[in-house]
Every structure is written in structure tokens, then in C-alpha cells.
Prior knowledge:
Chain A has 168 residues and is mostly helical. Chain A has 7 helices and no strands.
Amino acid sequence: MIRSTLSYSITFILMVLVxxxxxxxxxxxxxxxxxxxxxxxxxxxxxxxxxxxxxAGFLLGITIDMFMHTPGLHAAATVFAAxxxxxxxxxxxxxxxxxxxxxxxxxxMGLGWYLRYVVIMVLLHHMVLFYLEVFRLTxxxxxxxxxxxxxxxxxxLILITDTLVYRK
Amino acid sequence: xxxxxxxxxxxSHVFLFILFESLALIILFQKNDYHRPLAVNALQRMxxxxxxxxxxxxxxxxLRETNRQLAEENARLRSLLRxxxxxPGKGFTPMxxxxxxxxxxxxxxxxxxxSVTSQYNYLTIDKGSDDGVAPDMAVxxxxxxxxxxxxxxxHFSLVISLLNRDLKxxxxxxxxxxxxxxxxxxxxxxxxxxxxxxxxxxxxxxDTVVTSGLSSIFPEKLWIGFVEKYHIEGGSFYSVDVLLANxxxxxxxxxxxxxxxxxxxxxxxxxxGR
Lengths: 168, 274
């Protein structure tokens, strides 16, 4: 228990650092920015309780906000992502449910399942994030394009990270 | 009563969500004027230190461009030197420059962090209150307006970028006296919009857009950008698309501009109830 808490805390720190130190410095054309940090919410165990998940989401978002001068913006998006995660998991659950010894990774759950999981979660998170940031509907389609492009890039990074870091 | 507890228990995760989500939204929508000083806490200081380091690396890759800019600026400054002018001849001694009151003071600073992807972009520069920087000082490059200092720590300042939807700057077309408002519509980092220009003004694509000098922050005639195209908006006003003179993605060195008469001007204006 203590060991896994420690390892998740390290994951949290690494995710935040990679986001603010590396990804926020890569400005691709000025329109899209990948938000890999959301992967922290994705790698948490299946059976994690709401009482940890939602505060963890808030903590993750507000930490990112602190670095990006956007108080509350990322926190709102991560809390939302944390809230929908159990629902998304049960939506795409395999026929025999989840094994509590398993962790949500490509190596354990297969690429097909993982892809569905990541696409839904990242898309929801990015939607909330980008529309909340713009906070108007006049540029609806323009924002949608930004959401989709950034989602694509984030998913790609998550797939690469998961393949490299969480090998068997 | 027991049923109430059961309901509360059953929906506890929803309540938890609502609690944290509203906390985030309250923080987000606190009607914050961008002058709200951001608490410079340990985390932020850590990120500043890191940004300084990354920036040293990034600067290395931009050396060629920086050299070119410095050379250009040297040339321009040289051309302003006394030696660049013809000797006025004997008989009259040239008027001493110190006879004029210098209103604006310039200090250079390095950009240590910058963003253009958000709707509300900020920059961090490596001069702070120890160097005499204070909120509401203008920040520009020799190509034009960059932003305004919003908060300072001893060694760093946070600058609201022109690419921030909260920032509005008073601007006009060079050669006309009609001021308009320059703001960022939040799309491309290359363009801003100049609004509220009366439609009887003659505009040509390529015209220079400069600061109007109608605030106590920016000096007059600082470049902002160049007219790209324009259209009539809301009846009798032009909305002008302005191609920015600065490339905000590549900002490296900036000046901080201090208006020495700002306090005097503000005092006068507030004394007369404006």
C-alpha cells in the first residue's frame, strides 16, 4: 500500500514536470498543445475510490495551473475527467469485468481496450479544457479543430509513454 | 432522516465532484482583473529557476537571429549618434540634450518563459523589483509592443502578453490621430485586431499601427504591427486585422519601459476625479 502510494506520487511529480518543463515549451504552430499530464489519472488502479480519485484530479489540475498562470482552468478539467473515469471504465469493461490485480495498461489490457479508454478520456478532458478556456461558442468549430488536433497528439504521447514505461 | 443519509451516501461521489468542480470554477471565474498579484510561492520560484535554465539552451539555438537583431539595432542607434549628424557649423552651439526632460527609461531583460498557445498568455522576464521593475510598466522589443508587467518578485516579473484576451492597448494608424483599441481575438499568434477606427479614415494594407500614447503606460508611436486587411463592423467603424511586428514565438530580449511621469499624471487625473 505504502509502496504503491509512493510510486503513484512519483508518477504524479514526473507527469507534472514533463508537462511544464518539456511539453509546454514545445509550441507546435501555436495552435495545439499536448497535455500528457492527464495520463496520471489514467494509470491509477481500477478499484481506486472516489474519495481519492477526485481530490487527486483536483490536485493534479491545480498544480498544472500554478505553472501555467491559469488558476482553476486545468483543475476544472481534471476534476471532470476524474469524475467520469469510473463511468467510462464500466462502459468499456470487458465481458468478465476487471481483475483487481490488473492495471490499466496496453501490456495487460490489450491495445484495443486501451485505445478506447484513452480516446474517450482524453477527448472529454480536452473538450472541457479548451471550451472552458475560450468560454464562448462563436468560434465553436475553430476550437473543435484545436481540441481534436491536441487530443490526437496527447493520445500519441500517451501510447508511446505507456509502451515504453509500462512494459511487462 | 435515515433515508436522507442513504441518499447522501449513495450520491456521495456526485457531491464530492460538485464540491471540487465548483472550487475549481470559483477559482477560475473569480472576476480577476489581470492585476491581481499572483502569489509567488515556492513552486513558482522553482519553475522560474528551471525556465531560466531551459532558456539558456534555447538562446543558443537562436544566436544567429539574435545577432542579426542586435546588429540591426546597433546600426539604428549609431545613426542617432551625434557623430552621425553633420556638424552644425560654427557660430551656434547645439542645444544641450539635458535641457529636455527625459520621460521614458529603458532597461533590457531576457524572456525566461513565454507561451502563445493559451487564450491568456503570459511571459516571465528576468528582471524584478530588485532591478526597479514595478507593475504597469510597458514591455516591448525594438520591433514593438509585447505587453505590460502585472506582478513582480525580487528577480522576475510576470508580463501579460499582447496575446492575452484580457489585455487591451490603445493604438492608432500612423499618420492619423484617431485612437482605437488593439486586442487579441485569441486565434493566431501572428495577428491582433484594431477596433473602433472611424470609417472615414483612409487605410491601406501595410500601414503601420502604433501605440496612441493615450495611456500612462506605453510611449507614443511604439510599433504594434501592420494592417493586413480591414472591414466595416457595427456601422461606422473599421475593424482592422493587424499583422504583429513581433514574432511572439521567438521573443528573447525585451525592454522594460518606465514612464517617469506616470505617477504625476495619475495623481493629476485622479485628483480631478477622472
